[in-house]
Amino acid sequence: MSRREPCPRGDLNHVLHRAYDALLPHQRRDPTRLESGISSGRHRSFAWTASFSLLQPPSGTSLPMGREPTPTPAAPTAAASSATLQTGTQSSTLVPVASPDPADLSEELTVDSLRDLLAESADATVDSVRTALLPYLTLMARHQVQLSITPPLQGDVRTQRRLNDALGFDQVLAAVQPLSDTLPDLPHVVGEPTAQLKISREEAAAAKRLLVPVQLRIESLETLLNKSTAEVNGHQAEIKRLKSANVRIGSLFEKSKESMDVQTENLRLAMNYAEQKQDIIDALDKQIEKEREVFRTTVSANTENTRKLHDRLRRVPGSMLTLLR
């Protein structure tokens, strides 16, 4: 089969349907070849489910890319296959159907080679074809799983080119990066982190228990902080009010200072005026003192003249006084 036209990832049923359409064109048209497969037709869907269940690994494991599935012996005829399917239906375990010795898988698988393989037996049935194709279907399932798990190859141009140019499953599987064979050890790998997770959860629970008194202390401190914050806010409001009062008092003080400066200037002018008046008063006092001295001198002279005149009058006789009167 060609890898030139890649199918969508995970579309395994579509790929198988196209493969069987290409492999069995004559058997579907020839009713004589389908008579042997009619008896197992009602088990076909169950057989397909059984085959695909064989291709899927158990839960938590994966099939390594380099290993081949271990084939188990199968019945050579359709009757034996039907009996095996009926027995598998009645029992709880399903017996896989595989070819005894598959062909060399290194050779390219083509439609012509599969037709030649079918032409070797005229009594080929669907079960025998499925048995012959089981190794290739296993590789196909692995390839589909690989395409589902591998990250996209948009950035890896060389791998994408090799994958597009690959012919056959071997080249396709060689072009794609093989799966890691670490899933069988998954329980052990997961067990250790699970134990660590459990220990971490216990430590986290213990830490939470230790944090309870700290949380209570933090809550009490938050309450105290809120109370202190309220008091600080009250003090800040009082400080703001006092600042406003100080601003008003400062403005009044500035006005009073300006008024005092004006009054001081007026007082200085008044003092200068008073000094000038005092100088005038001193000059007038000196003048008055001089006038007094002059008056005193004049009065003294007049008094002396009057005394002299009185003395002279006393010396005059009485007859003269009568005449004078």
Topology:
Elements: H1 12-23, H2 25-29, H3 31-38, H4 44-55, H5 78-90, H6 111-119, H7 126-149, H8 157-165, H9 168-175, H10 186-315, H11 318-324
Question: How would you describe this structure to a colleague?
Answer:
The chain has 325 residues and is an all-alpha fold. The chain folds into 2 domains: 12-181, no CATH class; 188-318. The protein is 73% helix and 0% strand. The chain has 11 helices and no strands. It has helices at residues 12-23, 25-29, 31-38, 44-55, 78-90, 111-119, 126-149, 157-165, 168-175, 186-315, 318-324. α7 runs parallel beside α9 (168-175). The longest helix is centred in the C-terminal third of the chain and has 130 residues, at 186-315. The radius of gyration is 68 Å and the shape is rod-shaped. The chain starts with 11 loop residues before the first helix and ends with a helix.
